[in-house]
């Protein structure tokens, strides 16, 4: 892990007590206040133990800069995004490190639309932070704090009210769901949402106390407890969210944890079956999306990794659905941001409308196997040199919009520096496990060559 505060298009994150603390949060929020237009700021947080003190620091800083604050308390990232969009706020701050371990925390900054900051605006925040040009108010000009207790209910109502969700059809199926919210921010909204859709909900770790009993990243290898619980009961689907509930993973009715890539594939299927239009995903997302889109004659656009990049392209081309293959579903009719509760509703929608099991739905897609690994950085990530090594492998195409992605006749691999951890992500995909492993091994050898020569 990096010993530095990590900056990205989403904000800033670090290890609590080492690279992020109340002082860092105070200065970051003061810098954020400096670049925002006039208006209040919405603040929310996930459940990790450091969140309360860091949220207090954020609120204190913003009010000390003369900003009124709308405090939504513990809330999912998409809940805070919606609360920001539908208020008169100038922006929002979410205290969450999303899928990072409990030792981490972070600030996600939002503009008045409830979207992550543009690269230009984000650069201005971090410039003000580095230069310590903070707009502290005088003693008579400090802001005030109000509490919004209805943000979660408003988010829930907005999902249930979507035209793409056939509430009565879902309710008629009497679906049984096992839900794992890792004791995070989704622990309140997700059970309520599922119950409002007529599902019988069995909760696993849905107490919002920040006790992350498993790795927070919702990937199959981290979902053994949920998979075991689903396998023992007559259940239609298992849902697993990350701590701030912007990512969703699935367990099928047999108790098999499936790749989080299928969360987005199924959501795209559910939406395109009712609404034609373009799809936007990132460069690391599985090719299964292309197969789903092709069935509906839809165009797929790919962007660099990161929600801000995907959202910008979605708004530019008017896409009807999109997201990231890490389990992040974005439906701009609701809000252009990743949303695990929305993903749950769309999965129930496709189960209800098709009358098929989750395992059957996944089996109908063309076979793709994706592998994801992290390699600790041992030197500089030199794109030009990496491309030189990759060219010896005779790829069909090399894409350098975000790290380096090499496409071959039998699949692809993608090497990129993580925005959230001090690692290089190695992602590879082929039509079978052996092919995916072979491509991932090729990618690792490229990194070995790169760092051996430094």
Describe it.
There is one protein chain. With 454 residues, this protein is an alpha/beta fold. It folds into 3 domains: 6-148, 3-Layer(aba) Sandwich (Alpha-D-Glucose-1,6-Bisphosphate, Chain A, domain 3); 154-363, Alpha-D-Glucose-1,6-Bisphosphate, Chain A, domain 3; 370-452, Alpha-D-phosphohexomutase, C-terminal domain (TATA-Binding Protein, 2-Layer Sandwich). 37% of the residues lie in helices and 23% in strands. Strands 1-2-6-5-3-4-7 form a 7-stranded mixed beta sheet, with helices on both faces. A 5-stranded mixed beta sheet has the order 9-8-10-11-12, sandwiched between helices. The model has no long low-confidence stretch (mean pLDDT 95).
